[in-house]
Design brief:
Number of domains: 1
Strand content: under 5%
Number of helices: 4
Largest sheet: none
Shape: elongated
Length: 154
Amino acid sequence: METLTPLNQEKKPLSPEDTTQAPIIHLSALSKYVIPLGSILGPLLFWLIWRDKSEFVDFHGKEALNFNISMFIYKLVIVIVGSLMFLSPFLAALGQIDRGGDPFTIFLSIPGLLLFVGGFGLLELLWLIFIIVAAVKAGNGEYYRYPLTIRLIK
């Protein structure tokens, strides 16, 4: 027996409030540029306020939260791994230079720096693109599932 999810249910007519509130939930993630953790707190706040009013808004609220939490986790991993990859060879090279070692071993820290800057930058760009796409789709009354999302809230 197939379970129905918002993606395969027959669509109920959406109210103008639905197609206004759902994009606001997605776009509220942009508050991260003003408020620490705003990409999670913004969608969470609006979702908690509006989730009982419509299945459509509830669906988009969960999607926005799951996506922003997932991106936070991915960025945290990149910061930790990139920092370790950068700092380990860098600090080792500094210690070797003091003892007359090869100063060129400092270049071993470049992959960590590239992972940190490139990976973080790529995730940030994808985050912005997916937020805009989700807001547009929600405004058009469409259900949208973010890629790269860990579904923590069901």
